[in-house]
Amino acid sequence: MKSTNKKILVAGAFLALAGAAHAQSAGSNIVSLGWFRVMPNSSADPLTVDSINGRPIGVTRPNTGAEIQSADTLGLAFSHYFTDNISAEFVVGIPPKHDVKGTGNYAQYGNLGSVKQWSPAVVVKYHFFDAKTRFRPYVGIGVNYTWFTDETITNQNFVNREFAPGATMTASAKSSWNPVFNIGANYAINDNWFVGLSVSYVPLSTRASFTTQAGPVTIQSHTKIKIDPVVTFLNVGYRF
User: Fold this and answer.
1) What sign does the dihedral 234-77-118-144 (CA atoms) show?
2) pLDDT digit string (tens) for 16-70?
3) Tally of domains within the chain
4) At 53, is the secondary structure helix, strand, or coil?
5) CATH number of the domain that 15 lies in?
6) What is residue 12's DSSP assignment?
7) Around 181, how many Cα atoms within 13 Å sit in the side-chain half-sphere?
8) Whose CA is closest to 145, among 118, 107, 109, 173?
9) Residue 7: pLDDT above 80?
């Protein structure tokens, strides 16, 4: 009797996973909303002073750097299934605001500033199993375009001590195209609703440029920042 009950439970679990949901079949359009967690694996080259009042300097300050801190934001995605197994997804999030923390000799200042990151992406995915399977893992590869706004140096103590008392400092970061590597899984609750979780890795770096104005003196400097974020996306989707 116990053996029979176990078989019934196993069969029930199998049917729950392989039920008759068709929410991820050819021609399906799905919009999903969820939570992004952006976790940079960042580091920066030492700061290089390029010029003073237009005169080339090229002096690197050793043991200086910065790192980008993790951030959360709301994400939106639209997917279209070209076949039962192949889909394309456009995904975008409200730009997260990242704090920028000093490292090396700059660690004593804590947060140096902040920046907002815009990273819409298009990802092509291959979904395993057939369209009737409720639980469907996938792998994907795509491309994103990243640009930055609101690059702000907020730590005046850092500017005063490292450049000149009362100086002002502005920043900008270079935009770039980057590959996206993606894995994840969806679970179809019924024909219209599903939940999903994905993890993406984006090899991303940027050149950050700084202009410091100390009275009549203009100082140009830069650093290269490796960001390389791992991005998780927990979402709920609807087929229409």
Assistant:
1) positive
2) 444 445 567 898 999 999 999 999 999 999 999 999 999 999 999 999 999 999 9
3) 1
4) coil
5) 2.40.160.20
6) H
7) 7
8) 118
9) no
146 within 8 A of 204, measured Cβ to Cβ: yes
Taking 70 as the threshold, does the pLDDT of residue 203 lie above it? yes
Measured between alpha carbons, how far is 93 from 56 in angstroms, rounded to an integer?
40
- What range does the domain containing 30 cover? 2-239
Per-residue model confidence as pLDDT tens digits over 56-72: 999 999 999 999 999 99
- The CA angle 69-72-74, to the nearest 5 degrees, is 150
Q: Which tokens go with 171?
A: 């920043």
* Torsion of Cα atoms, 196 then 182 then 40 then 152, to 10°: -80
**Could you give the C-alpha distances from 74 to 63, 78, 84, 117, 204, in angstroms and in order?**
36, 14, 28, 13, 21
pTM of the model: 0.86
The residue type of 211 is T
Rounded to whole angstroms, how far apart are CA atoms 179 and 12?
A: 41
